[in-house]
Amino acid sequence: MNPKYPTHPHVGVGAVVFNDNRVLLVRRGRPPGKGLWAIPGGRVQLGETLKEAAEREVFEETAIVIRAGAPVFTFDLIDRDENGRIRYHYVVIDLAAEFVGGTPKAGDDALEARWISRDEIKTLEVNAMTQRLLSEKFKF
């Protein structure tokens, strides 16, 4: 199922994972948000719960095992092309998650994956919704 120029919105999920006062972020390898640092996640597959999807997506993108919890942030991602046509439309639900194990390694559609400190995040090009989520909900 191609998410580009959809006929309906897609459901996306992300997981906010902390370890030693650092947050797990990925640098996106595909649009929308290509090249930006963001909360790891992706599309929910048919038959998956939000928690199952978050756990699968984080593992596929980062090799990190998590235990997904409750939703903490929801937003719309609607991207239009130069003609005003909807290129991407996601409803994204970010869940709090507990770090279980693993070492970050970029996989799937991530260019990079790593633990980011509060000081380091200020030096990176971070997705606007990720910045908002981390500052409003986690004071990070």
What is the helix tally?
A: 3
Number of domains: 1
What is the name of the CATH superfamily? Answer: Nucleoside Triphosphate Pyrophosphohydrolase
Morphology call: globular
- Sheet-strand content, in percent, reads 35-45%
Please, could you describe this protein's structure?
This protein has 140 residues and is an alpha+beta fold. The protein has a single domain, classed as Nucleoside Triphosphate Pyrophosphohydrolase (Alpha-Beta Complex). It is built from three helices and seven strands; from the N terminus they run ββββαβββαα. Strands 1, 2, 3, 4, 5, 6 and 7 form a seven-stranded mixed sheet that branches. A hairpin with a 2-residue loop joins strand 1 (10-19) and strand 2. The N and C termini lie far apart (35 Å). The mean pLDDT is 96.
Features:
140 residues, alpha+beta, Nucleoside Triphosphate Pyrophosphohydrolase, seven-stranded mixed beta sheet, 7 strands, globular
Give a quick summary of the entry:
By secondary structure, this protein is α+β, with helices and mostly antiparallel strands. The chain has helices at 50-62, 118-121, 128-138, and strands spanning 10-19, 22-28, 37-38, 41-43, 65-80, 86-101, 110-116. It is globular, with a radius of gyration of 14 Å.
